[in-house]
Design a protein that fits this description.
By secondary structure, this protein is an alpha+beta fold. It has a five-stranded mixed beta barrel. Strands 9-10-11-13-12 form a five-stranded mixed β-barrel. It contains four helices and 14 strands. InterPro entries: CcmE, CcmE-like_sf, NA-bd_OB-fold. It is found in: Membrane.
Length: about 220
Amino acid sequence: MNKKAKRRLVVTGGIVAIAMLVIVAIAGSGGAASSLTVGDLLTGDYAGKKVQVTGSVVDGSIETDGTAVRFDITPEEGDGSESVRVVYEGALPATFGSGVVAICTGTVENPPMLRCTEMVTKCPSKYESAEGSLTVKGLIDQADTMMFEDTKVCGYIQGEVNDASADYRFVIESQGATLKVVYDGGLDEQVSDGVAVVLSGHLDSDGIFVATEQPAIDSSISK
């Protein structure tokens, strides 16, 4: 091998080595998130670390602050005595809400708090028949006597399904009448425009239906 070929080989080898170092550095800087429990975070030993924590969203803990949403998560099988604060900026999935299991990835800050950059939620499906429930028109026609009374109402979701921080979650329609629905819990991923649902809850004084359970999908009918 002549000197020119040797020089070329050395240069090529150097470039390859530098490229490999850059790749390793980039991979190391990103770093895979460590999977931790809520209890792990509460020890205060993980400040500045990228972690992934799974927990149930604590009822009544959801707050909005500009584009940020703050909420607490607690272990799925725990007694609720342990919880950690999560701050998330981004589009909330429709399935997000109180009681939903949230898988949160982000950076730990002190005091123990998770600055979440990625969130995935999971919520069990629920199906139920509309039999025995009122239509929207039937409920509105009896509004004076049905206000704050526990009842069931059925209808088709009309239009967009909002996240849990919105003024109302969605609108349902049946027999030509519409009703705004408030619900801060999680929704099945199939709850969307045109889907038939059965809601448990009560009619509020402002004419909005306050759902107290996850909307059930009426799988027996379709629009």
